[in-house]
Specification:
The protein is α/β, with parallel strands linked by helices and about 425 residues long. It contains 13 helices and 20 strands. α1 packs parallel to α2.
Length: about 425
């Protein structure tokens, strides 16, 4: 059995226990469970137990709708400290680089977006005959994004799959093309997420709700807040406004380069900034630990969008708050109560977070590990263990959270120094 202690989890919830048991005893599965209930772990645990870590062939394929979910799923696998090797495959980077990774890593599990998986299968970049398990995570989102044809083509390239599993947060899906005889696990009515969240709306006298957003964020203090907007251009406009007002805010949308999205997300996840302004790209597949507030700057257009945005907070057994900013020509959801805010003073803003994110210009491909980076920051940078926070090592760069006070002196101490015998750039991530 795989230990949960590496993930900081004491026990599985009822949905995860039932799903793991059904996975082990049944054939094809359909899992319906709300956003934030832990579906990824529900299938990963029994899946990893079933894989042969001594093999050098791909045995399982997981289809996901976004590169963020692909990377996050593989990170969970690494954090579980198993011997199974997992590799994310997604667009936005050269397929040839991934082909080289497939040859060097020899993963037993690949997690990828439909189009990129299909590309590798068509080119024969990994052996399809060795794949026995196919899982489609966030199946409803995959359909919503128009991946039906690509998913069907991927399935056609995997002739020896003996187990299929679809996971969805909504029941409004058509699965006949993917499953015929299967076990259905429906936990949609079991969610107690509503008991752990409070939903409120805030009236804005102005159509442009920036001032109202600023006042709300000030009232929330240093709490973490995910601000949803409807358009890529709005992400940049809102985030720039907040930064000019003195807030620590990151931005993320689909038009950004992948490296920039990773950097912005790390700043938020590591606590180096407490506000993330994003499109609905962030409403699915991002598991942000203990996110305290979801703010709808632009109101959700459908109940499904509302559900998935709100599902970013109050995950597992935590509490969360949800706010809707309502302009003069808008109507709040019928089941949400109004709250009032005090007017912020000129120049007032929430306190800055305790942490700052560093960018380090070397990564996994340079044989760098989290332990190497922690040692570098403490031995060369002079930091104490408690002054080093979250560390994330990517292929060609890394990020590390350090205490904000004294960060500029730290940068000076590290300038020109070598990590594992290599010179590299070390700078504040927001400037990278």
């Amino acid at each position: 059995m795989i230990s949960l202690s590496h993930l900081g989890i004491d026990a599985l919830n009822a949905m995860q226990q039932d799903t793991a048991a059904a996975y082990r005893r049944s054939g094809d599965l359909l899992l319906l469970s709300p956003t934030g209930s832990g579906k990824t772990l529900a299938y990963l645990l029994p899946l990893l137990e079933s894989l042969d870590s001594a093999s050098s062939e791909v045995q399982a394929v997981v289809i996901v709708p976004s590169r963020e979910l692909a990377m996050q799923t593989c990170k969970v696998v690494r954090d579980m400290k198993t011997e199974v090797r997992a590799l994310p495959l997604y667009g936005g980077r050269p397929a040839m680089d991934e082909h080289r990774q497939l040859q060097s890593v020899r993963p037993q599990l690949v997690v990828g977006t439909p189009g990129r998986l299909l590309d590798h299968l068509q080119k024969g970049n990994f052996m399809s005959n060795s794949v026995r398990t196919l899982i489609i995570d966030e199946f409803d989102k995959c359909l919503e994004q128009g991946f039906r044809d690509e998913m069907s083509a991927v399935m056609a390239h995997l002739p020896r799959v003996g187990k299929r599993m679809l996971l969805s947060a909504t029941d409004d899906i058509s699965i006949s093309q993917y499953l015929t005889s299967y076990t259905r696990l429906d936990f949609l009515s079991d969610s107690n997420n509503g008991e752990r969240t409070s939903e409120l709306f805030v009236k804005s006298l102005e159509k442009d709700k920036l001032g109202t957003l600023s006042s709300l964020l000030i009232s929330l203090g240093a709490e973490s807040s995910l601000v949803f907007v409807g358009f890529r251009e709005s992400v940049e406009r809102v985030a720039d406004y907040l930064r000019r007002q003195g807030f620590s805010a990151a931005a993320m949308h689909g038009g950004m380069e992948q490296r920039d999205r990773e950097r912005q997300l790390f700043r938020f996840v590591s606590g180096s900034c407490n506000i993330l302004v994003a499109t609905d790209l962030a409403s699915r597949g991002l598991d942000i630990d203990n996110l305290q507030n979801v703010i709808h700057y632009h109101l959700p257009l459908t109940d499904e969008v509302r559900t998935h945005r709100n599902g970013r907070t109050a995950r597992w057994d935590r509490l969360g708050r949800i706010f809707y900013l309502v302009g003069p020509e808008e109507q709040p959801p019928l089941d949400v109560q109004e709250t009032s805010l005090r007017v912020a003073h000129q120049g007032e803003h929430a306190p800055l977070p305790l942490w700052e994110a560093l960018y380090i210009g070397k990564g996994r491909k340079d044989k760098l590990s989290r332990g190497d980076i922690a040692g570098f920051l403490m031995k060369v940078g002079g930091l104490q263990r408690e002054e080093v926070g979250l560390i994330d090592v990517r292929d060609h760069q890394s990020y590390a959270a350090v205490r904000r006070d004294g960060v500029h002196n730290l940068i000076k101490r590290l300038a020109g120094q070598k990590i594992k015998g290599m010179k590299t750039i070390v700078q504040v991530a927001s400037l990278a």
